[in-house]
Amino acid sequence: MAHLNQALLKRARFGADTQLLVSPVTASGVEVSRPEQLFLLAHQRQVDPVQFVWNILQVQGERLIKEGHVLESADANQQELAQQVQQFQEFRLPLFRRLQLI
What we know:
single chain, mainly alpha, 57% helix
């Protein structure tokens, strides 16, 4: 299962075609958004998650949306990513660890 999750995390760099990772604890899939998958990948690689995700989004011409508005500037996107990373690390990462997704 770890190899499958690792392959799915690597694919998240190119798109959001898979929104599930496999948990050996529940023996089922767990919904994990593309940003969360990218945060997990950055965590595994021990790199700055904001810069890691922003580099991927920037190369692909993608921008984040906040409160219905596209964030156009790099600073606005990075600030939003920083907020998302903080929430991810506080709430979702501990859960994903308990579910043994990483």
